[in-house]
């Protein structure tokens, strides 16, 4: 289908101020959308309250309003500009919520503005827990079990049916107080009694806890012709219980067989169709039981999300740009892949490297804040690193955090046994370094798994980094002269500083010894297709491999 | 232990051995699927080939008892960047390395698989040897050059079943599958759709097959060069030849789980699983007799066609998936519909 000519002007809603949980990733997606729609010849009207964004640069849109993103103000802009359409899916949750309210208020109807990408009904279906649950049941997807109870007796019956651990959420409380997680009947009774009292309806929702399950995300795109493709799968290093924004995450999924991956792919496609996102990207989260493989759907975001920005950079597939083009009527097979030029956007990127995202915390700036990582996001930024192996990418990512870590470093002090167990059990910003301490102090992978539920594949990779570390130490006399030992260190992501510390040397000496051996960094392409086709406008990541693809 | 991969054009890669030790020859090809190595290894279509996985981390979820596409692996060698030290999955029953060792397949890790893939992409699929015993590079290159290769080779007789058997004993529709190296999932998908499935060796006579009075006939996937095979085989390519078309060898083939194909009847895009080095020439097809139904959106090659008069259709890719997306499973339903139609 060619692009729509019945709409001439489009209102894009930005994401507003940068807060924890919603940062520059939505500036990135919004700016991409502005550029794509302008290039297609549409008049772009932009509203964003944050002047310190790329999106609000004067050349980005035809009309830019730096006004609060609240319905009353946006209505005034609509009244003045009379756009033909509004695109609410590229400005995070803020834009989505604002557009939903405008729709409920009847503003779009009044001024004859069409919602493109996702309409109010779609937003409601994805966001309302009850409607979402019904929709998922309709397409046969499993969810965490849940039931409402109005008395302690009723609640105990539900607990018996579902089994511990359980999450208790009181319905209609002021400020959402009174809920919690219960691991046994004593805790359960206390929380339920408290919850029933706090609830204005004397009602609690009792939900099966999926804490500790494996967590996955899928980035999905759909066009008006109902073509659906999966852009990227993501596996969380930290299992369920830690917000995705606070988790170390890895692309693509590492520990799923093809059968299990396809099950998740089929489910994702069914979800985007059932929820009814017309065009653009969605993010769908799943939890998988580590022992039985039972897969449940957690949630779906009918919009470009934090993970979409990650998935775009991880695969080379520009999700926001393509989403904008799909919103105005193009189909995936009509849009060329910028990188290969010969293939269409209606394909699924395949990658030949490993991507690791690591969150950055600044708890020192929030004295008194609870530093345990939970289901609400606390990180303020992140690094993303690409390597040929998980080990290499993880070390690069840790190095990039600017927390003075040169990679997968040692803790700067010796924790007590109780402290160590505590830090492993309750996720925290430094857990990755406590994991290193645990492995080095001889705790078995099985024991660490029992405490953390971090998949053994990840734990084993950590162990392998530590083994390479001992290998470097053991060869401290040889490494500066022996290219194969040096290569092994570099391939596993060790920086010159890390090597220098391990062998009691300095960075410059390691660097020059390496240069002398001719062991230099090589650059490889991010090309969406694992080298199947030549790449024209790709970007590079550094690694230590045979071939350097850098053309500069 | 060191291992070597030598190509006939003189390029040699050095890595670390895993799986079985020894020496074997085959055509070097790459596969871009990120998961599904167990299905790929046990797909008989890889007979005579050394597979390079473009995804660098392989073996992560081990090997399980369920995801087999035939009784055992058929490839000549397996090339990866990094073999996982553990098998982590609730279904895992063993590691990839011990599986390959058991089935006498040589694996090599620590290879710059991206450099190798680009080389195959630019120079085309070629003959190669993989070795842990002979380490002399000149000797290995010569062995690669002197090896048989795939062109003109009929490999079907090496992977087809020895005698006919019932895959599924009951069902409404009787289907005869001609096993040219069939993947189990073809039979599983048919069985799921209420078909009684009988599998025949590829060299069965028409009389043998028709004596079972099938409602439908399925020509399976399989390895080798279709031009060399004179009986029924390699489904699509064979049908192409039978209808007067020509086949040719693609430079480096389609092997992966992300190939976009357009179904021309409804203009919808399917993401398909593919594994083929040969292809039916789209221009050689007699358009009066045959209707083109599917094309590859990457390189516009022929992916499917149907006969205008007879109830015959075929696709070049793998609707049975395994590994790969399930987008094209509807083709099995269409097959059932065709059988229904001829019942009436």
UniProtKB/TrEMBL annotation, chain A:
Required co-factors: Mn(2+)
Pathway it works in: Amino-acid biosynthesis; L-arginine biosynthesis; carbamoyl phosphate from bicarbonate: step 1/1; Pyrimidine metabolism; UMP biosynthesis via de novo pathway; (S)-dihydroorotate from bicarbonate: step 1/3
Recorded GO CC terms: cytoplasm
InterPro entries documented for this protein: ATP-grasp, CarbamoylP_synth_lsu_oligo_sf, CPAse_ATP-bd, CPSase_dom, CPSase_lsu_oligo, CPSase_preATP-grasp, PreATP-grasp_dom_sf
Signal peptide range in chain numbering: none
GO biological process: glutamine metabolic process; L-arginine biosynthetic process; pyrimidine nucleotide biosynthetic process
Pfam families: CPSase_L_D1 (PF25596), CPSase_L_D2 (PF02786), CPSase_L_D3 (PF02787)
ATP-grasp domain segment(s): 133-328
Any one GO molecular-function label of the UniProt entry: metal ion binding
Keywords: Amino-acid biosynthesis, Arginine biosynthesis, ATP-binding, Ligase, Magnesium, Manganese, Metal-binding, Nucleotide-binding, Pyrimidine biosynthesis, Repeat
Known catalytic reactions: hydrogencarbonate + NH4(+) + 2 ATP = carbamoyl phosphate + 2 ADP + phosphate + 2 H(+); hydrogencarbonate + L-glutamine + 2 ATP + H2O = carbamoyl phosphate + L-glutamate + 2 ADP + phosphate + 2 H(+)
Function: Large subunit of the glutamine-dependent carbamoyl phosphate synthetase (CPSase). CPSase catalyzes the formation of carbamoyl phosphate from the ammonia moiety of glutamine, carbonate, and phosphate donated by ATP, constituting the first step of 2 biosynthetic pathways, one leading to arginine and/or urea and the other to pyrimidine nucleotides.
Family according to the record: Belongs to the CarB family.
PANTHER family from the UniProt entry: CARBAMOYL-PHOSPHATE SYNTHASE [AMMONIA], MITOCHONDRIAL, CARBAMOYLTRANSFERASE FAMILY MEMBER
Subunit structure: Composed of two chains; the small (or glutamine) chain promotes the hydrolysis of glutamine to ammonia, which is used by the large (or ammonia) chain to synthesize carbamoyl phosphate. Tetramer of heterodimers (alpha,beta)4.
Stated name of the protein: Carbamoyl-phosphate synthase large subunit
Organism: Candidatus Saganbacteria bacterium
UniProtKB/TrEMBL annotation, chain B:
Keyword match Nucleotide-binding: yes
Enzyme class: ligase
Listed EC numbers: 6.3.5.5
Gene Ontology molecular-function annotations: ATP binding; carbamoyl-phosphate synthase (glutamine-hydrolyzing) activity
Carbamoyl-phosphate synthase small subunit N-terminal domain ranges (all copies): 1-131
UniProt pathway annotation: Amino-acid biosynthesis; L-arginine biosynthesis; carbamoyl phosphate from bicarbonate: step 1/1; Pyrimidine metabolism; UMP biosynthesis via de novo pathway; (S)-dihydroorotate from bicarbonate: step 1/3
Pfam families the UniProt entry points to: CPSase_sm_chain, GATase
Keyword field: Amino-acid biosynthesis, Arginine biosynthesis, ATP-binding, Glutamine amidotransferase, Ligase, Nucleotide-binding, Pyrimidine biosynthesis
UniProt cross-references to InterPro entries, sorted A to Z: Anth_synth/Amidotransfase, CarbamoylP_synth_ssu, CarbamoylP_synth_ssu_N, CarbP_synth_ssu_N_sf, Class_I_gatase-like, CPSase_GATase1, GATASE
Signal peptide limits: none
Protein's UniProt keywords contain Ligase: yes
Region of interest (CPSase), residue spans: 1-173
Subunit structure and binding partners: Composed of two chains; the small (or glutamine) chain promotes the hydrolysis of glutamine to ammonia, which is used by the large (or ammonia) chain to synthesize carbamoyl phosphate. Tetramer of heterodimers (alpha,beta)4.
Protein name: Carbamoyl phosphate synthase small chain
Origin species: Candidatus Saganbacteria bacterium
């Amino acid at each position: 289908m060619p692009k729509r000519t019945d709409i001439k002007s489009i209102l894009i809603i930005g994401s507003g101020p940068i807060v924890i949980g919603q940062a520059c990733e939505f500036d990135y997606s919004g700016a991409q959308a502005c550029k794509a729609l302008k290039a297609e010849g549409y008049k772009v009207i932009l509203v964003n309250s944050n002047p310190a964004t790329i999106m609000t640069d004067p050349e980005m849109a035809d009309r830019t309003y730096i006004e609060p993103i609240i319905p009353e103000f946006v209505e005034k802009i609509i009244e003045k500009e009379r756009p033909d359409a509004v695109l609410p899916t590229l400005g995070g949750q803020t834009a989505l919520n604002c557009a939903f309210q405008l729709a409920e208020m009847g503003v779009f109807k009044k001024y004859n503005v069409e919602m493109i990408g996702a309409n109010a009904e779609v937003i409601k279906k994805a966001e309302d827990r009850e409607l979402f649950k019904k929709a998922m049941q309709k397409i046969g997807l499993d969810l965490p079990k849940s039931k409402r109870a109005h008395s302690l007796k009723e609640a105990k019956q539900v607990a018996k049916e579902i089994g511990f651990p359980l999450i208790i959420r009181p319905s209609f409380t002021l400020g959402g107080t009174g809920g919690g997680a219960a691991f046994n009947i004593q805790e359960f009774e206390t929380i339920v009694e408290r919850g029933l009292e706090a609830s204005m309806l004397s009602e609690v929702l009792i939900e099966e806890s999926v804490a500790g399950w494996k967590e996955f995300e899928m980035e999905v795109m759909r066009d008006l012709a109902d073509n659906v493709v999966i852009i990227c799968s993501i596996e969380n290093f930290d299992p369920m219980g830690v917000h995705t924004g606070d988790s170390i995450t890895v692309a693509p999924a590492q520990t799923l067989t093809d059968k299990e991956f396809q099950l998740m792919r089929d489910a994702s496609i069914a979800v985007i169709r059932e929820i009814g996102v017309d065009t653009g990207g969605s993010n769908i989260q799943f939890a998988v039981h580590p022992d039985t493989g039972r897969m449940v759907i957690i949630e779906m975001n009918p919009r470009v999300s934090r993970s979409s920005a990650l998935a775009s950079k991880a695969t080379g597939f520009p999700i926001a740009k393509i989403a904008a083009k799909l919103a105005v009527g193009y189909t995936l097979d009509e849009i060329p892949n910028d990188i290969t030029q010969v293939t269409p956007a209606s394909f699924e990127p395949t990658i030949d490297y490993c991507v690791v995202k690591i969150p950055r915390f600044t708890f020192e700036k929030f004295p008194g804040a609870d530093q345990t990582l939970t289901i609400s996001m606390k990180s303020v930024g992140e690094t993303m690193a690409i390597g040929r192996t998980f080990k290499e990418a993880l070390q690069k990512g840790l190095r990039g955090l600017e927390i003075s870590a040169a990679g997968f470093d040692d803790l700067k002090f010796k924790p007590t046994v109780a402290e160590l167990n505590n830090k492993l059990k309750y996720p925290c910003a430094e857990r990755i370094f406590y994991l290193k301490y645990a492995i080095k102090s001889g705790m078995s992978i099985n024991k660490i798994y029992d405490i953390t539920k971090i998949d053994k594949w990840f734990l084993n990779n950590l162990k392998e980094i530590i083994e390479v570390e001992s290998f470097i130490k053991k060869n401290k006399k040889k490494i500066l002269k022996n290219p194969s030992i040096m290569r092994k260190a570099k391939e596993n992501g060790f920086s010159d500083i890390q090597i220098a510390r391990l062998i009691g040397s300095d960075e410059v000496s390691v660097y020059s010894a390496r240069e002398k051996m001719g062991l230099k960094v090589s650059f490889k392409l991010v090309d969406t297709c694992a080298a199947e086709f030549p790449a024209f406008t790709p970007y590079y990541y550094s690694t230590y491999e045979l071939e350097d693809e850098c053309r500069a | 232990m060191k291992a070597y991969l030598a190509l006939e054009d003189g390029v040699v890669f050095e890595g670390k051995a895993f799986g079985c030790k020894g020496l074997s020859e085959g055509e070097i090809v790459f596969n871009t699927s990120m998961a599904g190595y167990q299905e790929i290894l046990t797909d008989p279509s890889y007979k005579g080939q050394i597979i390079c996985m473009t995804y660098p981390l392989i073996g992560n979820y081990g090997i399980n008892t369920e995801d087999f596409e035939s009784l055992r692996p058929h490839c000549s060698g397996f090339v990866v960047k990094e073999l996982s030290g553990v098998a982590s999955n609730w279904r895992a029953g063993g590691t990839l390395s011990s599986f390959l060792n058991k089935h006498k397949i040589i694996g090599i890790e620590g290879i710059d698989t991206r450099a190798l893939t680009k080389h195959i992409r630019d120079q085309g699929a070629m003959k190669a040897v993989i070795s842990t015993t002979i380490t002399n590079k000149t000797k290995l290159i010569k062995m690669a050059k002197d090896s048989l290769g795939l062109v003109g080779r009929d490999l079907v007789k090496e992977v087809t079943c020895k005698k006919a058997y019932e895959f599924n004993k009951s069902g409404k529709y009787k289907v005869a599958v001609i096993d040219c190296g069939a993947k189990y999932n073809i039979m599983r998908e048919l069985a799921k759709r209420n078909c009684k499935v009988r599998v025949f060796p590829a060299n069965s006579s028409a009389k043998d097959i028709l004596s079972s009075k099938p409602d439908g006939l399925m020509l399976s996937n399989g390895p080798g060069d279709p031009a060399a095979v004179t009986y029924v085989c390699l489904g699509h390519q064979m049908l192409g030849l039978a209808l007067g078309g020509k086949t040719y060898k693609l430079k480096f083939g389609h092997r992966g789980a992300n190939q976009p194909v357009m179904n021309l009847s409804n203009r919808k895009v399917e993401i398909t699983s593919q594994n083929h080095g040969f292809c039916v020439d789209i221009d050689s097809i007699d358009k009066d007799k045959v209707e083109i139904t599917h094309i590859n959106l990457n390189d516009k090659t022929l992916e499917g066609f149907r006969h205008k008069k007879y109830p015959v259709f075929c696709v070049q890719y793998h609707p049975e998936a395994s590994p790969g997306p399930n987008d094209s499973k509807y083709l099995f339903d269409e097959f059932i519909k065709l059988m229904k139609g001829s019942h009436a």
